[in-house]
UniProtKB/TrEMBL annotation:
A Pfam family annotated for this UniProt entry: DAO
Protein name in UniProt: L-2-hydroxyglutarate dehydrogenase
Protein's organism: Sporomusa acidovorans (strain ATCC 49682 / DSM 3132 / Mol)
Coiled-coil annotated spans: none
Regions crossing the membrane: none
Amino acid sequence: MLNIDKTDVVVIGGGITGTAIVRELSKYELDVVLLEKNPDIASGSTKANSGILHAGFDAKPGSLKATLNVRGNKLYHDLEDELGLDIKWTGSLVVAVNSDEQETLKELLERGRTNGVPGLAILSREEVLAREPNITPNVTGALWAPSAGIFLPFGAALAFAENAVKNGAKVVTDCPVEEMVTENGKITGVRTKHGFLSAKYVINAAGVHADEISRLAGDDSFAIKPRKGEYILFDKKVSNLVQNVLFPTPSKVSKGILVSPTVHGNIFIGPNAQDVDDKEDVATSLGGLQEIVSKAQQLLPKLPLNAAITQFSGLRAAADGGGDFIIRPSAIVQGLFHAAGIQSPGLTSAPAIAEMLVNILKDQGMELKRKVNFDPVNPRKIVFRELSHAAQQQLIAQNPLYGRVICRCETITEAEIIEAIHGLCGARTVDAVKRRTRAGMGRCQGGFCGPRVTAILARELNIPVTAVRKDSPASYLFFDKLTADCREALQ
Ligand SMILES: Cc1cc2nc3c(=O)[nH]c(=O)nc-3n(C[C@H](O)[C@H](O)[C@H](O)COP(=O)(O)OP(=O)(O)OC[C@H]3O[C@@H](n4cnc5c(N)ncnc54)[C@H](O)[C@@H]3O)c2cc1C
């Protein structure tokens, strides 16, 4: 629910871009409100991607993508402790298998150095095999980028949002913006499903929908076409197969299908690239999955297909006009600012995008006075499975719900789920609990814990089980209780 009708700044979209911006703005004496159409933040592109903090050798020198990638990567080194982010600085390898690809590695090395990427080096075949013994025997060398890392994108977005809320910002979910209200070419507010919110500034961080938001205000300066990328995720039992992020040598059109560890010890392969029309279409396809399997096998011949546990896909917000990020004031509507076309490396760039956008606001005349009591730190959350046996015993003695394991694959306790539901940006759906705690992310993919998490959500939110949703606005899991007649018929 909205519960307010006036603010200084509205940020539309609760992905990593919007949450990083709202956190940056919460450093100043401003009323800031983030509006997200879905029941949870980080449920657009930010939830389904490769989760790599790219080093920054890929983008064209001088582009926003190149500058903000390298700056963002550096900022995450500071944010890691401040916000309690899960990051592993694994480094990445771009793998070459012939002399043409070796030449491309040299180009990438030069481009990376121009972009300011630290520590790049070309490794010999032997050096690559020493790091990655399971890689293709055809390897001839690789570009090593030590500043690349892997992280949990929705964990980062949640940390940005929670820190912003801690510092006075508001985050409202289930609140789609339906109309942009302007007067004499100037933004005056937004109309949402829950009413009008007056605002002096509106920031458009609506991902694949950013062009629609812009058009609602009368600015049709860009269009966004979604480009789907599909993935397969593998069980933790095969996690020792790769240590670093492995890219093939890129072609002119794509970074290619990669093989990578995740921050929690799984491995994944993907993504492919397929233009689609529907901005909510995240279905996977047999053809797409076959494509990523065959390409990933070129990097990792021993790919253990019988250890696949799930597949998913995400949508890149590919903008027309060259494909660089669109971060600027609207040329048509005063008070409207775009952070749009944020495709890869958008996760890596997010804190730098937020920094840049706030500087643009300053240049455009926004009065920015630093809060004296801004608190940059998020407290570390309790992760029961990572504690020593003694520490676990102590917690259970204080709160017996730490002794009740709800997700058996990932060892997630009822106490952690309750904490996720009542947190600063609390979980309202089964997948929101999953994203915060990992309940449902293991081998059985929620087969065991799903109904239990649903019951806990209903109890803690004081709603009927039929009102609990899986993820999207209308994804209800149960429709009604079985009547006695139905039960009898089923027996
Ligand atoms: C396949 C794939 C792989 C990728 N891999 C990487 C990677 O490894 N590293 C990297 O740095 N980047 C990567 N990216 C890019 C990265 O995922 C995106 O740049 C980033 O998630 C974009 O975040 P966002 O906040 O701009 O958009 P989103 O996360 O899509 O957020 C936009 C939000 O706006 C909301 N919204 C839309 N319309 C409205 C409305 N009317 N009212 C209110 N809210 C609205 C949506 O619900 C959504 O939550 C990848 C992307 C894809 C698809």
